[in-house]
Amino acid sequence: MNQTESPTWEADYCALTSSCGLVLLSNWTQLVIRGQDRVSFLHNMCTNNIRDLGAGTGCEAFCTDVKGKIVGHLLVMVEQEQLTLLTLPEQASKLIAHLERYIIREDVQFGETTSDFSWFFVCGPQARGRLAHVLDSPAQLPTESWRSTTVFLRDTQCLVVATDLVWPGGFLLRVAACECDSLSEGISTSRIVDFDSPAFTAMRVESGFPFYGLDFDSSHLPQEIDRDRRAISFKKGCYLGQETIARIDALGHVNKKLASVKFTGTTIPVVGTSLFQNQIEVGTITSGIWSPGHSAPLGMGFISRAANSIGSVLESELGSATIIAPFLTGHS
Description:
Strand content: 25-35%
Helix content: 10-25%
Order of helices and strands: HEEHEEEHEEHEEEHEHHHEEEEEE
Strand order of the largest sheet: 8-9-10-7-1-11
Structural class: alpha+beta
Number of strands: 17
Shape: globular
Oligomer: single chain
Radius of gyration: 20 Å
Largest sheet: 6 strands, mixed
CATH topology of the domain at 209-324: Elongation Factor Tu (Ef-tu), domain 3
Number of helices: 8
Protein backbone atom coordinates (compact mmCIF):
# COMPACT_ATOMS: atom_id res chain seq x y z
CA MET A 1 0.00 0.00 0.00
CA ASN A 2 1.31 3.46 -0.92
CA GLN A 3 0.55 6.58 1.04
CA THR A 4 0.38 9.34 -1.56
CA GLU A 5 -1.93 11.79 0.22
CA SER A 6 -3.39 12.47 3.63
CA PRO A 7 -5.14 9.35 4.97
CA THR A 8 -8.93 9.35 5.02
CA TRP A 9 -8.80 8.82 8.78
CA GLU A 10 -6.67 11.91 9.44
CA ALA A 11 -9.57 13.74 11.11
CA ASP A 12 -9.94 10.88 13.60
CA TYR A 13 -6.22 10.97 14.37
CA CYS A 14 -6.27 14.75 14.79
CA ALA A 15 -9.16 14.53 17.25
CA LEU A 16 -7.40 11.84 19.27
CA THR A 17 -4.10 13.69 19.40
CA SER A 18 -4.95 17.40 19.15
CA SER A 19 -8.29 17.78 20.91
CA CYS A 20 -10.35 14.89 22.32
CA GLY A 21 -11.35 11.55 20.87
CA LEU A 22 -13.10 8.45 22.12
CA VAL A 23 -11.75 4.96 21.41
CA LEU A 24 -14.13 2.06 21.96
CA LEU A 25 -12.31 -1.00 23.27
CA SER A 26 -14.80 -3.38 21.69
CA ASN A 27 -15.08 -6.74 23.46
CA TRP A 28 -11.88 -6.28 25.42
CA THR A 29 -11.63 -9.03 28.00
CA GLN A 30 -12.47 -8.07 31.58
CA LEU A 31 -11.70 -10.53 34.34
CA VAL A 32 -12.27 -10.03 38.05
CA ILE A 33 -10.49 -11.78 40.90
CA ARG A 34 -12.21 -11.87 44.27
CA GLY A 35 -11.50 -13.55 47.59
CA GLN A 36 -9.28 -12.84 50.58
CA ASP A 37 -6.11 -14.04 48.83
CA ARG A 38 -6.68 -12.28 45.50
CA VAL A 39 -3.82 -9.80 45.88
CA SER A 40 -1.16 -12.25 47.01
CA PHE A 41 -2.26 -14.78 44.40
CA LEU A 42 -1.98 -12.39 41.43
CA HIS A 43 1.26 -11.01 42.88
CA ASN A 44 2.68 -14.52 42.63
CA MET A 45 1.47 -14.99 39.06
CA CYS A 46 2.65 -11.87 37.24
CA THR A 47 5.69 -9.68 36.67
CA ASN A 48 4.66 -6.54 38.52
CA ASN A 49 4.28 -5.68 42.21
CA ILE A 50 0.59 -6.13 43.00
CA ARG A 51 1.05 -6.51 46.76
CA ASP A 52 2.10 -2.88 47.25
CA LEU A 53 -0.82 -1.42 45.32
CA GLY A 54 -3.70 0.13 47.22
CA ALA A 55 -7.30 0.52 46.18
CA GLY A 56 -7.62 3.11 43.43
CA THR A 57 -4.27 2.26 41.85
CA GLY A 58 -3.13 -0.12 39.14
CA CYS A 59 -0.34 -1.17 36.84
CA GLU A 60 0.62 -3.00 33.68
CA ALA A 61 1.91 -6.57 34.00
CA PHE A 62 2.74 -9.74 32.13
CA CYS A 63 1.26 -13.03 33.24
CA THR A 64 3.94 -15.68 32.69
CA ASP A 65 4.25 -19.45 32.76
CA VAL A 66 6.80 -21.50 34.67
CA LYS A 67 9.35 -20.97 31.86
CA GLY A 68 8.89 -17.22 31.94
CA LYS A 69 6.98 -17.10 28.64
CA ILE A 70 4.10 -14.64 28.32
CA VAL A 71 0.58 -15.98 28.87
CA GLY A 72 -1.10 -12.58 28.88
CA HIS A 73 -0.53 -8.82 28.92
CA LEU A 74 -2.68 -7.29 31.64
CA LEU A 75 -3.89 -3.88 32.72
CA VAL A 76 -4.59 -4.31 36.44
CA MET A 77 -6.95 -2.10 38.44
CA VAL A 78 -7.22 -2.51 42.22
CA GLU A 79 -10.77 -1.91 43.46
CA GLN A 80 -12.14 -2.17 46.98
CA GLU A 81 -13.56 -5.68 46.68
CA GLN A 82 -11.81 -7.09 43.63
CA LEU A 83 -8.94 -6.94 41.18
CA THR A 84 -9.99 -6.05 37.66
CA LEU A 85 -7.90 -7.28 34.73
CA LEU A 86 -8.32 -5.73 31.29
CA THR A 87 -6.76 -7.16 28.15
CA LEU A 88 -7.45 -7.75 24.47
CA PRO A 89 -10.51 -9.71 23.27
CA GLU A 90 -10.95 -13.46 23.63
CA GLN A 91 -8.33 -13.97 26.36
CA ALA A 92 -10.61 -15.01 29.24
CA SER A 93 -10.70 -18.79 28.93
CA LYS A 94 -6.94 -19.12 28.45
CA LEU A 95 -6.06 -16.83 31.35
CA ILE A 96 -8.56 -18.37 33.77
CA ALA A 97 -7.45 -21.91 32.90
CA HIS A 98 -3.82 -20.92 33.43
CA LEU A 99 -4.43 -19.19 36.76
CA GLU A 100 -6.74 -21.85 38.17
CA ARG A 101 -4.03 -24.48 37.71
CA TYR A 102 -2.06 -22.85 40.51
CA ILE A 103 -4.79 -22.55 43.13
CA ILE A 104 -3.96 -24.80 46.08
CA ARG A 105 -5.83 -23.57 49.14
CA GLU A 106 -6.03 -19.88 48.30
CA ASP A 107 -9.32 -18.07 48.67
CA VAL A 108 -9.65 -16.72 45.14
CA GLN A 109 -12.48 -16.75 42.63
CA PHE A 110 -12.30 -15.76 38.97
CA GLY A 111 -15.05 -14.31 36.86
CA GLU A 112 -15.40 -13.00 33.34
CA THR A 113 -17.44 -9.80 33.13
CA THR A 114 -16.62 -8.84 29.54
CA SER A 115 -20.24 -8.68 28.40
CA ASP A 116 -21.34 -6.70 31.46
CA PHE A 117 -19.21 -3.61 30.82
CA SER A 118 -17.93 -1.38 28.05
CA TRP A 119 -14.47 0.19 28.12
CA PHE A 120 -13.38 3.39 26.38
CA PHE A 121 -10.18 5.31 26.04
CA VAL A 122 -10.66 9.08 26.07
CA CYS A 123 -7.49 10.78 24.91
CA GLY A 124 -6.05 14.04 23.71
CA PRO A 125 -5.06 17.33 25.36
CA GLN A 126 -8.71 18.29 25.88
CA ALA A 127 -9.71 14.95 27.43
CA ARG A 128 -9.56 16.17 31.02
CA GLY A 129 -11.53 19.29 30.28
CA ARG A 130 -14.16 17.40 28.31
CA LEU A 131 -14.67 14.92 31.13
CA ALA A 132 -14.65 17.63 33.80
CA HIS A 133 -17.43 19.42 31.93
CA VAL A 134 -19.83 16.51 32.45
CA LEU A 135 -18.65 15.34 35.89
CA ASP A 136 -20.69 15.92 39.02
CA SER A 137 -17.37 16.62 40.78
CA PRO A 138 -14.53 17.49 38.34
CA ALA A 139 -11.96 17.52 41.16
CA GLN A 140 -12.36 13.76 41.40
CA LEU A 141 -10.50 13.13 38.14
CA PRO A 142 -7.23 11.31 38.87
CA THR A 143 -4.05 13.15 37.94
CA GLU A 144 -1.42 10.38 38.16
CA SER A 145 -1.12 7.47 35.77
CA TRP A 146 -2.93 4.34 36.99
CA ARG A 147 -4.84 6.25 39.65
CA SER A 148 -8.56 5.52 39.43
CA THR A 149 -11.83 6.57 40.96
CA THR A 150 -15.55 6.00 40.50
CA VAL A 151 -17.47 9.05 39.31
CA PHE A 152 -20.81 9.95 37.75
CA LEU A 153 -20.95 11.30 34.24
CA ARG A 154 -24.44 12.80 34.00
CA ASP A 155 -25.94 10.07 36.18
CA THR A 156 -23.87 7.31 34.56
CA GLN A 157 -21.58 5.54 37.06
CA CYS A 158 -18.11 5.22 35.61
CA LEU A 159 -14.69 3.98 36.67
CA VAL A 160 -12.07 6.48 35.47
CA VAL A 161 -8.42 5.43 35.21
CA ALA A 162 -5.69 7.90 34.26
CA THR A 163 -3.26 6.33 31.81
CA ASP A 164 -0.31 7.08 29.56
CA LEU A 165 -0.57 3.95 27.40
CA VAL A 166 -0.43 6.09 24.25
CA TRP A 167 1.32 9.37 23.82
CA PRO A 168 -1.56 11.88 23.93
CA GLY A 169 -2.44 10.53 27.37
CA GLY A 170 -5.95 10.28 28.70
CA PHE A 171 -8.32 8.09 30.66
CA LEU A 172 -9.69 4.59 30.53
CA LEU A 173 -13.41 4.59 31.28
CA ARG A 174 -15.61 1.65 32.31
CA VAL A 175 -19.40 1.79 32.27
CA ALA A 176 -22.15 -0.79 32.36
CA ALA A 177 -22.74 -2.11 28.85
CA CYS A 178 -26.26 -0.68 28.84
CA GLU A 179 -24.81 2.81 29.45
CA CYS A 180 -22.42 2.71 26.50
CA ASP A 181 -24.43 5.08 24.31
CA SER A 182 -25.13 7.45 27.19
CA LEU A 183 -21.42 7.81 27.90
CA SER A 184 -20.44 8.64 24.33
CA GLU A 185 -23.26 11.15 24.05
CA GLY A 186 -22.40 12.69 27.41
CA ILE A 187 -18.78 13.35 26.47
CA SER A 188 -20.07 14.99 23.28
CA THR A 189 -17.12 14.07 21.13
CA SER A 190 -17.62 14.00 17.39
CA ARG A 191 -14.87 11.44 16.85
CA ILE A 192 -15.47 7.87 18.04
CA VAL A 193 -13.29 5.08 16.67
CA ASP A 194 -12.67 1.45 17.50
CA PHE A 195 -9.39 0.20 18.93
CA ASP A 196 -8.42 -1.48 15.65
CA SER A 197 -9.03 1.66 13.58
CA PRO A 198 -6.10 3.12 11.59
CA ALA A 199 -6.17 6.28 13.74
CA PHE A 200 -5.68 4.42 17.01
CA THR A 201 -3.24 1.98 15.39
CA ALA A 202 -1.10 4.95 14.35
CA MET A 203 -1.15 6.30 17.90
CA ARG A 204 -0.25 3.00 19.54
CA VAL A 205 2.56 2.23 17.05
CA GLU A 206 3.93 5.76 17.52
CA SER A 207 3.80 5.10 21.28
CA GLY A 208 5.36 1.64 21.07
CA PHE A 209 2.24 0.06 22.62
CA PRO A 210 2.14 -3.56 21.34
CA PHE A 211 -0.86 -5.88 21.20
CA TYR A 212 -0.66 -9.43 22.52
CA GLY A 213 -1.56 -11.87 19.76
CA LEU A 214 -0.46 -9.44 17.08
CA ASP A 215 2.93 -8.01 17.98
CA PHE A 216 3.94 -10.76 20.41
CA ASP A 217 2.61 -14.01 21.80
CA SER A 218 3.28 -16.93 24.14
CA SER A 219 6.62 -17.67 22.48
CA HIS A 220 8.10 -14.44 23.85
CA LEU A 221 9.72 -13.41 27.12
CA PRO A 222 8.70 -10.19 28.93
CA GLN A 223 12.01 -8.37 28.38
CA GLU A 224 11.67 -8.89 24.63
CA ILE A 225 8.63 -6.59 24.65
CA ASP A 226 10.71 -3.64 25.92
CA ARG A 227 8.25 -2.57 28.62
CA ASP A 228 10.43 -3.35 31.63
CA ARG A 229 9.87 -0.01 33.37
CA ARG A 230 6.11 -0.22 32.95
CA ALA A 231 5.36 -3.88 33.50
CA ILE A 232 8.16 -5.65 35.39
CA SER A 233 9.32 -5.35 38.99
CA PHE A 234 12.80 -6.77 39.52
CA LYS A 235 12.56 -6.36 43.31
CA LYS A 236 9.29 -8.10 44.16
CA GLY A 237 10.68 -11.56 44.87
CA CYS A 238 9.46 -14.93 43.66
CA TYR A 239 6.64 -15.44 41.19
CA LEU A 240 5.85 -17.93 38.45
CA GLY A 241 8.54 -17.60 35.76
CA GLN A 242 10.66 -15.25 37.87
CA GLU A 243 13.80 -17.39 37.66
CA THR A 244 14.04 -17.01 33.89
CA ILE A 245 13.24 -13.30 33.98
CA ALA A 246 15.79 -12.66 36.75
CA ARG A 247 18.44 -14.61 34.83
CA ILE A 248 17.88 -12.41 31.76
CA ASP A 249 18.12 -9.31 33.93
CA ALA A 250 21.43 -10.53 35.35
CA LEU A 251 22.68 -11.30 31.85
CA GLY A 252 21.78 -7.77 30.83
CA HIS A 253 20.02 -8.37 27.52
CA VAL A 254 17.73 -10.45 25.36
CA ASN A 255 18.64 -11.53 21.84
CA LYS A 256 15.80 -9.51 20.28
CA LYS A 257 13.23 -6.97 21.34
CA LEU A 258 10.37 -4.91 19.97
CA ALA A 259 11.41 -1.60 18.46
CA SER A 260 9.86 1.24 16.47
CA VAL A 261 11.05 1.57 12.88
CA LYS A 262 10.60 4.62 10.63
CA PHE A 263 10.74 3.96 6.88
CA THR A 264 11.72 6.23 4.03
CA GLY A 265 9.42 6.58 1.04
CA THR A 266 5.64 6.24 1.12
CA THR A 267 4.97 2.50 1.25
CA ILE A 268 3.49 1.17 4.48
CA PRO A 269 5.24 -2.00 5.72
CA VAL A 270 3.04 -5.07 5.94
CA VAL A 271 3.23 -7.67 8.69
CA GLY A 272 6.20 -9.91 7.99
CA THR A 273 8.31 -7.30 6.19
CA SER A 274 11.95 -8.30 6.73
CA LEU A 275 14.69 -5.92 7.87
CA PHE A 276 18.36 -6.39 7.05
CA GLN A 277 21.73 -5.14 8.17
CA ASN A 278 24.74 -5.86 5.95
CA GLN A 279 22.49 -8.21 3.93
CA ILE A 280 21.72 -10.30 7.04
CA GLU A 281 18.10 -10.47 8.20
CA VAL A 282 17.86 -8.89 11.64
CA GLY A 283 14.16 -8.18 12.13
CA THR A 284 10.53 -8.60 11.14
CA ILE A 285 7.66 -6.11 11.22
CA THR A 286 4.61 -7.02 13.34
CA SER A 287 2.52 -3.84 12.87
CA GLY A 288 2.72 -1.20 10.16
CA ILE A 289 0.86 2.06 9.55
CA TRP A 290 1.22 5.51 8.05
CA SER A 291 2.28 7.81 10.89
CA PRO A 292 0.87 11.34 10.75
CA GLY A 293 3.16 12.21 13.66
CA HIS A 294 6.25 11.32 11.63
CA SER A 295 4.77 12.00 8.17
CA ALA A 296 6.24 8.65 7.18
CA PRO A 297 5.51 4.92 7.21
CA LEU A 298 6.08 3.46 10.66
CA GLY A 299 6.43 -0.09 11.89
CA MET A 300 6.88 -2.03 15.08
CA GLY A 301 8.79 -5.28 15.08
CA PHE A 302 11.31 -7.58 16.65
CA ILE A 303 14.90 -6.55 15.92
CA SER A 304 18.00 -8.48 16.96
CA ARG A 305 20.18 -7.08 19.72
CA ALA A 306 23.03 -6.11 17.39
CA ALA A 307 20.75 -3.87 15.33
CA ASN A 308 18.06 -2.43 17.64
CA SER A 309 19.74 0.60 19.19
CA ILE A 310 18.14 4.01 18.55
CA GLY A 311 19.51 5.46 15.32
CA SER A 312 20.47 2.15 13.71
CA VAL A 313 19.77 2.22 9.98
CA LEU A 314 18.44 -0.97 8.41
CA GLU A 315 17.42 -1.97 4.89
CA SER A 316 14.23 -3.50 3.53
CA GLU A 317 12.48 -4.07 0.23
CA LEU A 318 10.79 -0.70 0.89
CA GLY A 319 14.09 1.16 1.29
CA SER A 320 16.02 2.19 4.35
CA ALA A 321 14.52 2.21 7.83
CA THR A 322 15.74 3.75 11.10
CA ILE A 323 15.20 2.58 14.69
CA ILE A 324 13.54 5.45 16.59
CA ALA A 325 12.31 6.13 20.11
CA PRO A 326 8.53 5.96 20.69
CA PHE A 327 6.55 9.09 21.35
CA LEU A 328 5.99 9.61 25.07
CA THR A 329 3.06 11.19 26.86
CA GLY A 330 3.26 14.95 26.51
CA HIS A 331 4.91 14.74 23.09
CA SER A 332 4.15 17.67 20.86
